[in-house]
Design a protein that fits this description.
The chain is built from six helices and 15 strands. By secondary structure, it is an alpha+beta fold. The radius of gyration is 17 Å and the shape is globular.
C-alpha cells in the first residue's frame, strides 16, 4: 500500500492500495482489483473487498460509491454507511466511517480538517475536475478552508496523459490560468497535468496545505491504468477517522 504522506492529525488514517497485493482477481485484473464494474468476476471482487477490510484492519467496510465522473457529493454517517451512493466524492464527520474512491488514471484526492474532525474523498477525472467536483466537496465541509489539508494520490502523470482540445477548452472556459497545465504535442492535442489543475482549484478555494502528487499510474506497474491497459481493474484510496 501507499500511505498518504501528509501532515494529517494522528486520528486520520489514509492510504492507497496497489494492484499486486495478494487477491482473487485473475488476468487482466490481477490480483487485488477492487472495482465492481470493470468486467472482473463479481465473486473475486467481493473476496478482495473482504480481504481489504481484514488485511488492513479497517474499522468497517468502506462506503463505496457508484462513480459517474460527475460532481455529486455523498455524506455518510453511521446510519447510511452501507448504502451505495451515485456520487464522485464523499464526506463524513463520523469516526470509523471509511470513505473510498476507485481509480485507474483519474486523480484520487483526500482531504481532512487539521483537527481530524472531518474528512473527504474525491474522484477527480478530467470531467469531474473541470465541472467542479473539488469545489462542490470543499463547500460541503464545515471546517474553515485554511484548516484543510489535501493529499493528491496516484494518477496518470503529465508526461503520459495526452488529451484533445475539448479537454483543454473545458478548463480554460473556467480559468485561463489552467493553460499552465497543458503542453502542446501534435495538432489539437495536449499533455495534461491533472496535478497542476487540482492544485490550482484547491489554491483558489483557499486550501493552502496541499501534499502528494508526482505519481504516474501509466508508467508505474504498481497501479491499474485504463490508458495503458484498457481492460483493467481499479485500486482504492481510503480515508477514515480513527
Amino acid at each position: 500500500m501507499i500511505v498518504a504522506d501528509w501532515p494529517a492529525p494522528e486520528r486520520v488514517r489514509a492510504f492507497t492500495t496497489v494492484r499486486s497485493s495478494p487477491g482473487a482477481s485473475r488476468t487482466p485484473f490481477d490480483t487485488f482489483n477492487l472495482g465492481a464494474h470493470c468486467g472482473d468476476d463479481a465473486a473475486a471482487v467481493a473476496t478482495n473487498r473482504t480481504m481489504l477490510v481484514e488485511r488492513f484492519d479497517l474499522p468497517a467496510a468502506p462506503c463505496w460509491l457508484r462513480q459517474v465522473h460527475g460532481i455529486s457529493v455523498a455524506g455518510f454517517d453511521a446510519t447510511n454507511a452501507r448504502a451505495p451512493a451515485e456520487a464522485d466524492a464523499a464526506i463524513t464527520r463520523t469516526p470509523h466511517t471509511v470513505l473510498a474512491v476507485l481509480t485507474a488514471d483519474c486523480l484520487p484526492l483526500l482531504v481532512c480538517a487539521d483537527d481530524g474532525s472531518e474528512i473527504a474523498a474525491i474522484h477527480a477525472g478530467w470531467r469531474g475536475l473541470a465541472a467542479g467536483v473539488i469545489e462542490e466537496t470543499i463547500q460541503r465541509l464545515q471546517a474553515p478552508r485554511e484548516r484543510l489539508i489535501a493529499w493528491l494520490g496516484p494518477a496518470i502523470g503529465p508526461q503520459s496523459y495526452e488529451v484533445g482540445d475539448e479537454v483543454r477548452d473545458a478548463f480554460l472556459l473556467r480559468d485561463a490560468a489552467a493553460s499552465a497545465a497543458f503542453v502542446p504535442t501534435r495538432a489539437q492535442h495536449w499533455l495534461c497535468d491533472l496535478y497542476t489543475l487540482a492544485w490550482q482549484r484547491l489554491t483558489a478555494l483557499g486550501v493552502g496545505r496541499i501534499n502528494g502528487g508526482g505519481f504516474d499510474t501509466h508508467t508505474d506497474a504498481r497501479f491499474y491504468s485504463h490508458r495503458r491497459d484498457q481492460r483493467t481493474g481499479r485500486f482504492a484510496s481510503l480515508i477514515w477517522i480513527a
